[in-house]
Amino acid sequence: MGLRRSRRRRESAQAAYEGAGRAAYDDTGRTAYDDTGRTAYEGTAAVELRGVRREYGRGAATVHALRGIDLSLPRGSFTAVMGPSGSGKSTFLQCAAGLDVPTAGSVRLGGTEITGMNENALTELRRSRLGFVFQAFNLLPSLTVEQNVLLPMRLAGGGSARQGRDRAADLLARVGLEGKGRRRPAELSGGQQQRVAIARALVTRPDVVFADEPTGALDTTTAAEVLGLLRSAVDTLGATIVMVTHDPAAAASADQVLFLADGLIADRLPRSSAATVAARMTALTAPAYAGAAA
């Protein structure tokens, strides 16, 4: 039952985002760009989890997806999250991003406690203060590239249309898509579509960008280009990125790598080579495989 509720919650959030996105371009309303930024949150952690647990089911059938996560991630940092299948990394991202509700514990984003928020408040927070990059891009095919980038700003409301267009043009130039704002997603390659998704995630200057396997659908060369853009967003724009990945090469772009196992943070590495990350993953999973083989 818990798994079904969580899945419905995530699907509902995504459907609401896409449905509202189509509605947002039925008029010429105002965008959410604020040229002054969000100085009230300076000095606070971008992401903070305290004693976060997530359980599904009841009794003997209970699944302990997260068993007590304590974590604080500073602003302007790039964190990769890795772990074997069933380790809790997807549940971690969903709880940290307000897409799922922890069974126990506290989640704060940009200094704001989100654990007790109702769905309407969470929706507003996700629109204005969080960015998302998905493996499948999730661009709306009926909108132009510029309209897709501006979608979070249009949903949040406020600001001027001119400021929004200027912001979109700047971000599209940064991700290598200058002059392509009037194209439709179908006219772009997979790598270009993911570049649009990154620009969209950054457009509101969010507290955190959550990336779920952002290079999973890309070839090696294109994946490296996309990771370079994420790295640049941290280094030049001061963005904060939390990325779930299974790829050691992707994790090597991050400032630190967290390794989850059995719902706990089992290990962590400062920025390291892909080979070092892969070796640590092998060491983390080898006991489990050995036990299974025995």
TrEMBL record:
Keywords: ATP-binding, Nucleotide-binding, Transport. GO terms for molecular function: ATP binding. Residues 47-287 form the ABC transporter domain. The keyword ATP-binding applies. InterPro entries: AAA+_ATPase, ABC_transporter-like_ATP-bd, ABC_transporter-like_CS, ABC_transpr_LolD-like, MacB-like_ATP-bd, P-loop_NTPase. Pfam families: ABC_tran. This is ABC transporter ATP-binding protein.
